[in-house]
Amino acid sequence: MLVRRSRNLKTQEHVLSPNGHADVSLRIAETFSSLQGEGLLTGVPSFFIRTSGCNLRCWFCDTPYASWRPEGERSTITELIERAVQARMPDADGGPSSAARIGHVVLTGGEPLIMKGMTELATGLRAGGLHVTIETAGTVDVEVPCDLLSLSPKLRASTPGRGAGPALADDSRWAELHEQRRMPIATMRRLIDRAPTTQVKFVVDSPAEYDEILTVVGDLGVAAADVWIMPQGITVDQLDAAAVWLRPWAAAAGFQYCDRMQIRWYGNRRGT
């Protein structure tokens, strides 16, 4: 067992934290310690806080338990900060190791920026000396302090079609909402302007998306070196097949190629 998960505790919507302030609770799908598998900080031991709930419905979403079928219980900001501060990488048996505490926290989802209390959570984590990465689709303009903004704009091909993604009765409604929400360039630019460091990650399903990526990069005004191109895939075979055509294009465009190392290390499973 490579990854240790923390049990989410039920709480009321608001309680008082030890400092006497309202302590908002957030619905959390999971928390776990693992190696960051994507982007600039690949290989860095990190504590992941995955919020449950999303305002988009990508057909290829690899965390449907935080989007299509959100699950999880509520945890207060204080509880989440305590878990993060105490987090260690798991040992070979899945228990906490004696290694130094983890210095990096990843706020992910779902879509963390739709969660009330995210600003307070990120502020508290950074006050505890932790490096904070926020993984977001960039559809919500919320001022949340972070050390790294990991922005993942959703391309046209992400919109769910009939029969794509987990089967739901409201697929057609979600397709319309997803398309309306997925690419607010002005909102993304404001998020980028506020962040000290940004990486922009695109999940690519086919070469047909190349022109759209170039257009979005130009609209966002980000440097090519800050753009990461990642294949859509949940198996090593799928990643390897996509790399054949995607890696050369990324290099020619001056972009970074972003593998999904967590799949190579652990397989496509929760808590990684």
Automatic annotation (TrEMBL):
It comes from the Bacteria. Pathway: Purine metabolism; 7-cyano-7-deazaguanine biosynthesis. [4Fe-4S] cluster binds at C54, C58, C61. GO terms for molecular function: 4 iron, 4 sulfur cluster binding; carbon-nitrogen lyase activity; magnesium ion binding; S-adenosyl-L-methionine binding. One of its GO terms (biological process) is tRNA queuosine(34) biosynthetic process. Its cofactor is Mg(2+); [4Fe-4S] cluster; S-adenosyl-L-methionine. Signal peptide: none annotated. Pfam families: Radical_SAM (PF04055). Keywords: 4Fe-4S, Iron, Iron-sulfur, Lyase, Magnesium, Metal-binding, Queuosine biosynthesis, S-adenosyl-L-methionine. Binds 1 [4Fe-4S] cluster. The cluster is coordinated with 3 cysteines and an exchangeable S-adenosyl-L-methionine. It catalyses: 6-carboxy-5,6,7,8-tetrahydropterin + H(+) = 7-carboxy-7-carbaguanine + NH4(+). S-adenosyl-L-methionine binds at F60, C61, D62, G110, S152, P153, K154. The keyword Transmembrane helix does not apply. Residues 41-272 form the Radical SAM core domain. Mg(2+) binds at T63. It is an enzyme of class 4 (lyase). PROSITE patterns: RADICAL_SAM (PS51918). InterPro entries: 7-CO-7-deazaguanine_synth-like, Aldolase_TIM, rSAM, rSAM_sf. Catalyzes the complex heterocyclic radical-mediated conversion of 6-carboxy-5,6,7,8-tetrahydropterin (CPH4) to 7-carboxy-7-deazaguanine (CDG), a step common to the biosynthetic pathways of all 7-deazapurine-containing compounds. Belongs to the radical SAM superfamily. 7-carboxy-7-deazaguanine synthase family. Homodimer. This is 7-carboxy-7-deazaguanine synthase. It comes from Allorhodopirellula heiligendammensis.
